Amino acid sequence: MTERRKGGRTERRKGGSRAVRESREALRARAAAILAELKAEYPDAHCELDYRTPYELLAATILSAQCTDVRVNLVTPAFFVCFPSPRMLAVADRADVETVIRSTGFFRNKAKSLIGMAQALVERHGGEVPREMDALRRLPGVGRKTANVVLGNAYGVNEGITVDTHVTRLARLLKLSRRKTPEQIERDLMALVPREDWALVSHLLIWHGRRVCIARRPRCGSCVVSALCPSAKLP
Ligand code: SF4
């Protein structure tokens, strides 16, 4: 195999095949340029779940698994009237919770997680949502993604980057990560994005994924980062 430096890229040749690998510096510069373009395009990007308190965001995020934010936002007003605090939810009848959240899908599992989460908040945290990643992840139904959503949005704490299906898809299309698992992609993005933008970059990629880089029919011709995207399909 032979290697040849060209601009910010390393070209590797083996037999007749050629693979082009971007240098670390070039990748960082491209990531910064993508971030700047998306910030300019979506100056209001934010979490699209409706919430007023950390408890409400935590519950809404649990409900958003395998469900759209729009659907969750239709359900949560009634949910928060019925179960306005962790203490109320902790003693709720599971069937009542299931009835309220039914349309979000997987409602039996979600009801179990929500009640378990509320009971853990009451028993271990005085009914408050903790601000620490480890404590959040020990709550029933709460993984790293949900914990990142709560920390980054309800508390303004940048412990990590929320990686959902949109972030996974866009990070790979933009070649900001070539990894497969959310944990690996999160680590790659954390190495490329300044810490103060960790919550924002997730919103930007999600907004772009919903509006322009739509799964299976990306609108590359209308995309503000097409010049920076190795996957762009332009006429
Ligand atoms: S250029 Fe196309 S594939 Fe790349 S981010 Fe934009 S819409 Fe997605």
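^ iron/sulfur cluster complex. The longest helix spans residues 107-125. The CA atoms of residues 29 and 192 lie 9 Å apart.
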